[in-house]
Specification:
Layout lengths: L2 E7 L2 E8 L4 E8 L5 E3 L7 H9 L9
Antiparallel strand pairs: 1-2, 2-3, 3-4
């Protein structure tokens, strides 16, 4: 599995992880800005993939 990062608006990113065995994509949303926010909509086990994708945009430590 891999999480893709797409900027869908200025400072707004969709992080998408496709899980082939169940034919389902989980989407998370990252609002990058002064106080970055991650709206995580997937299972906890997926967080390492998502945090790796967040790190491509900004340091994970900056998340609120």
């Amino acid at each position: 599995m891999e999480t893709t990062v797409d900027e869908i608006a200025p400072d707004l990113y969709r992080l998408s992880t496709y899980v082939e065995p169940v034919n389902l994509a989980f989407n998370q949303y990252l609002v990058a800005g002064e106080d970055p926010l991650l709206f995580h909509c997937g299972p906890r086990q997926m967080f390492p993939l998502v945090s790796g994708a967040v790190a491509r945009v900004l340091p994970v430590e900056r998340l609120r």
